[in-house]
Structures are given as structure tokens and as C-alpha cells.
């Protein structure tokens, strides 16, 4: 991927900014595939999202966290931060496919795509799970709603196999076993599987019936519709179950919880990102014009409104509203970051400058390891007797969790994740031939 920089044009804020000309782009030459820029700010968003999840779990998962009041209320606003990751995936995974369709160039290799996605997820996850289960003994042995719930080492063959294959969240008996946050990786894999099929459908339609702008938005709109309908169906069905509560709906050993953790129920989060990707693909291919700065200001106001709506919904105990607000807000931020990148205005944007700080970007690079390590580390610390019952103890547990998690994540990323991803992309550098002494 290439990074599009700032050209320093003083008139850029007054004139309608230029966008890449697909007719002059190498990606539109015969036999080539579409190339996408590295959108500035997205790595930082991923890093901040990971920190938000850690903060929420530290406050929510410790025994006496509710006693500290304000911190618990604030942490609830971060409880749907996983939506940020799904929206980011929807944007980043779908953008190359939609751009190829919009520019009428070949799609990327489907085989290489699947190989890259598998190498992105499985090597890092397997190493972390094996260490958590067999070294730390900090895996969830049973479902978290089980009265006999315990943290330790999984020895049951069926449960162990389900966790090794990332299928634990598709069976009621093994749901929430192993590493609790890993359920989202299974949801991501479900999304990865269907993306090429959606892309092929878009390409076939556009080639047979001519390029139509609305076709680019169809996959995202479809995912938003699927997610909304699925969640509504789960809620209606759950209400008909006598004695059921919200915790059972989310994490119990039942098919409602399995469906709630599935790609179907989380499809709307992916869909918001896909809609943002469709808009950027249309701009980069010349089908839409890049917005003026005043439009960006209006969208920033919309983000503030969505954040406020999410906080109000949490305060009013209406959990269904928050994921929608966060998903829409994330999509708008991604859209703004992409527009600022392709129009060479990113250097003037304070939000992007913040998200592009080296430390924040690096946290984004190791975000998957951060996401997987933090909960077992938190449970391991809880096993040592660390309890949150005051602000000092909260800061102690939070600091220890972040410190240990970041250290382990750096090791996992550089020794496992990064080499595996390079191997999946075919990025191993060929060995140089040694010069002959003769």
C-alpha cells in the first residue's frame, strides 16, 4: 500500500480538492488490480479502540467495580467499542474489492486473500491461547453464566478442540470458554468468508448492466439490514422465554447468545464500514466528487451528536442504541480520514495528526494481541487477589493489566503475528546469493 502525503497547496482549503485520476492510475492499466492508499489515522483508531476495551473490562470484570460509581458509569460507554473493530474491518477489507469494481480492473487474488486473512488471525491467536491455557492457567473452563464457572486450564477434548479451531462461539456448550474476547475473531472470520462473494456479485452486475453507483453501496446496505433484522429477531424471541435475562441473551449457554455473537447479528457494524468504503471507492474512481471542508465540519458535528446519543442511551439503559451510534460514528470518522488522505489535507487535520502519533499507531499494530491478552491477564491478576474497591486499587489493576498486556503483545506481534502476515502475503525476501571468492 502507498501513503498519499500532503502537497502543501495553500489553496486546498478554498478550492475543491483534487482526487486521483483513475485513467492515469497504474491500477487501471490492463491486467492490473486496484491499489488502495494507506488511510491515515485508522491504525490509531484501532489502537485507541483496544485501550477502550481494556479499560471497560478492567472496570466491569472486577468484583467490586460497581462500588466506585463514576468510573463504572464511564466504562459502560466503552462497552460497545468492539463495534469500532468490526466497522474498521468492513471498511478496510471491502475497499480494495469495491475500488476494483468501480475502476473495472481485476479483483485481487481470492486465494491470496483467504491465505492472508487466515495468517492474520490464527498464528497469533493459537500462540496466545496455548500460553493462556497451559502456562498461565487463565482460560475460561466453563461458560461465564455457569454457576460453577471457573478459570483454569481447559482439559475437556471437545472444548479444547473448539477453542483451537476458533469455533467455540458457534456452540452453546462452549460459548465464552477459552479467551472470552476471542468470540469476535470467529465473527470476523465469518465476514472474511463472504466478502469475495459480495465483491463478485458487484463486479458481475456492473459488467453486465453497466457501472451503476448504487451497486457499490448494496453490500453495505445489505449487511446493515441483516444485522438490524437479526438483532430485532433475537430480542423478540428472547422476550418470549420465561425467566430469561439480558446476561443470558449475551453470554448464556443457549442459541440466542450464539446468534448474538455471530456475523449475522453483528453484520450492521461491518455494514457501516462497508458503506464508508463504497463512498471512498466512488470518489477515488471519479464517480463522486470529494467534499469541501465545510462538509467535513458538518460531519464532525454529526459525530459529536452520535457520541452524545450513545451516552444518553447508556444512561437510560437502552443498550440497542449505542452500537448503532458507535457504528455510524466510526464510519464517519473513517470516511473523513480517507477523504483527508486522498485529497492531501491530512497534515492540516488535528485529529489525524493525533491518531498518527507513533505510539498510537504502534498500539494499532499490536491491537489484536492487546485484545486477546488483556482479559486472561486481568483474570490471572484477580486470581492473585487483586480486587477493585477504590480508585487507587482501580489505577493499580489498570496499570498492571496494561503494562503486562503491552509487554506480551509486543513480543507476540514481532515474533508471531508480523512474520506470519508477511508469510501469508508472500513477503519473504529472497536470500541474496553469496559472492564467489574466485
UniProtKB/TrEMBL annotation:
GO terms for biological process: lipopolysaccharide biosynthetic process. One of its GO terms (cellular component) is membrane. One of its GO terms (molecular function) is acyltransferase activity, transferring groups other than amino-acyl groups. InterPro entries: Acyl_transf_3_dom, Acyltransferase_3. The chain crosses the membrane at residues 81-101, 122-141, 189-206, 213-236, 256-284, 296-314, 320-338, 359-382, 394-416. It comes from the Bacteria. Residues 24-35 have a biased composition (Low complexity). The keyword Transmembrane applies. Residues 40-411 form the Acyltransferase domain. Residues 1-35 are annotated as: Disordered. Keywords: Acyltransferase, Membrane, Transferase, Transmembrane, Transmembrane helix. It holds the Pfam family Acyl_transf_3. This is Acyltransferase. It comes from Microbacterium caowuchunii.
Amino acid at each position: 500500500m502507498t501513503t498519499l502525503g500532503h502537497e502543501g497547496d495553500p489553496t486546498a482549503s478554498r478550492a475543491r480538492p483534487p482526487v486521483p485520476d483513475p485513467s492515469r492510475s497504474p491500477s487501471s492499466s490492463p491486467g492490473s488490480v486496484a491499489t488502495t492508499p494507506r488511510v491515515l489515522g485508522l491504525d490509531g483508531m484501532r489502537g485507541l479502540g483496544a485501550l477502550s476495551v481494556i479499560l471497560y473490562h478492567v472496570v466491569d470484570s472486577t468484583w467490586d467495580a460497581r462500588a466506585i460509581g463514576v468510573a463504572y458509569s464511564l466504562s459502560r460507554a466503552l462497552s460497545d467499542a468492539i463495534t469500532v473493530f468490526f466497522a474498521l474491518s468492513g471498511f478496510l477489507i471491502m475497499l480494495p474489492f469495491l475500488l476494483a469494481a468501480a475502476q473495472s480492473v481485476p479483483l485481487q487474488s481470492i486465494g491470496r486473500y483467504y491465505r492472508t486473512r487466515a495468517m492474520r488471525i490464527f498464528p497469533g491467536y493459537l500462540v496466545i491461547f496455548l500460553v493462556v491455557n497451559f502456562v498461565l492457567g487463565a482460560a475460561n473452563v466453563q461458560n461465564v453464566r455457569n454457576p460453577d464457572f471457573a478459570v483454569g486450564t481447559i482439559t475437556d477434548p471437545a472444548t479444547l478442540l473448539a477453542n483451537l479451531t476458533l469455533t467455540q462461539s458457534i456452540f452453546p456448550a462452549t460459548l465464552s470458554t477459552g479467551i472470552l474476547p476471542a468470540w469476535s475473531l470467529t465473527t470476523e472470520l465469518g465476514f472474511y468468508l463472504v466478502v469475495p462473494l459480495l465483491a463478485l456479485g458487484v463486479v458481475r452486475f456492473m459488467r453486465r448492466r453497466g457501472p451503476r453507483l448504487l451497486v457499490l453501496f448494496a453490500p453495505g446496505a445489505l449487511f446493515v439490514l441483516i444485522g438490524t433484522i437479526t438483532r430485532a429477531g433475537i430480542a423478540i424471541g428472547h422476550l418470549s422465554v420465561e425467566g430469561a435475562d439480558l446476561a443470558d441473551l449475551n453470554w448464556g449457554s443457549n442459541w440466542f447468545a450464539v446468534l448474538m455473537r455471530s456475523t449475522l447479528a453483528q453484520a450492521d457494524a461491518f455494514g457501516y464500514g462497508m458503506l464508508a468504503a463504497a463512498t471512498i471507492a466512488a470518489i477515488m474512481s471519479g464517480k463522486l466528487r470529494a467534499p469541501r471542508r465545510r462538509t467535513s465540519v458538518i460531519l464532525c458535528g454529526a459525530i459529536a451528536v452520535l457520541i452524545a446519543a450513545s451516552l444518553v442511551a447508556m444512561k437510560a439503559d437502552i443498550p440497542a442504541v449505542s452500537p448503532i451510534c458507535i457504528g455510524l460514528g466510526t464510519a464517519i470518522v473513517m470516511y473523513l480520514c480517507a477523504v483527508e488522505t486522498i485529497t492531501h489535507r491530512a497534515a492540516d487535520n488535528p485529529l489525524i495528526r493525533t491518531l498518527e502519533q507513533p505510539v498510537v499507531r504502534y498500539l494499532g499494530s499490536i491491537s489484536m494481541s492487546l485484545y486477546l491478552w488483556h482479559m486472561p491477564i486481568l483474570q490471572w491478576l484477580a486470581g492473585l487477589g487483586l480486587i477493585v474497591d477504590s480508585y487507587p486499587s482501580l489505577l493499580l489493576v489498570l496499570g498492571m493489566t496494561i503494562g503486562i498486556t503491552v509487554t506480551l503483545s509486543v513480543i507476540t506481534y514481532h515474533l508471531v503475528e508480523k512474520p506470519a502476515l508477511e508469510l501469508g502475503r508472500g513477503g519473504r525476501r529472497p536470500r541474496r546469493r553469496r559472492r564467489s571468492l574466485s
